[in-house]
Amino acid sequence: MKYVATLGDRSEVVEIAGADGRYRIAFGSEVWEVDARATGPGMYSLLVDGVSYAVAVGDRDGVRVVDVGGESYTILVEEQTRHVLRTRGRVAGAGGQTLTSPLPGRVTHVAVQVGDAVEAGTTLVVIEAMKMENEVKAGAPGTIAEIRVQPGQTVNAGDVVVVVG
């Protein structure tokens, strides 16, 4: 399974393979063999390349708070698909926004019409991909100039779905 871990302004793809407490974790260009065991609620014992770590993991407002070795890290962990939708689902163009589909899928809902005024964060189109409904949202305020998709339509990654002027 691929995830993206974001710490501050740095994001890295994390690929996890394995089961039953034995995992192979690829983080950026590094690869670790990890033996992980839960020792209590939110507490884990990790053996990483022969070094033992006691780790506490909690959740605060949707992000993971990880305490290890006297240090605390706040990390946003999301499936790679979710990260792609959140970060690449909209591309600013000159004088507006050209919003594209970040991955292949099927349009299930178009929430706006040409001429509608929208604010940043307004849902414009919903795309179903990999059994998940993903919202494509406006990145900035504007007016809907074009809608290039309709419900039921299949889209590819990079296809323009909406243009905001």
By DSSP (H or I, 4+ residues per run), the number of helices equals: 1
Number of strands: 17
SSE pattern: EEEEEEEEHEEEEEEEEE
Query: What is the overall shape?
Result: elongated
Main beta sheet, described? 8 strands, antiparallel, barrel
Question: Order of strands across the biggest sheet?
Answer: 1-2-3-4-5-6-7-8
Radius of gyration: 20 Å
CATH class of the largest domain: Alpha Beta
Distance between the termini: 38 Å
Q: Could you tell me the strand content as a percent range?
A: over 45%
As for the CATH topology of the largest domain, it is: Glycoprotein, Type 4 Pilin
Protein structure class:
mainly beta
Low-confidence stretches: 90-95
Architecture of the largest domain in CATH?
2-Layer Sandwich
How many domains make up the 3D coordinates?
2
Helicity level: under 10%
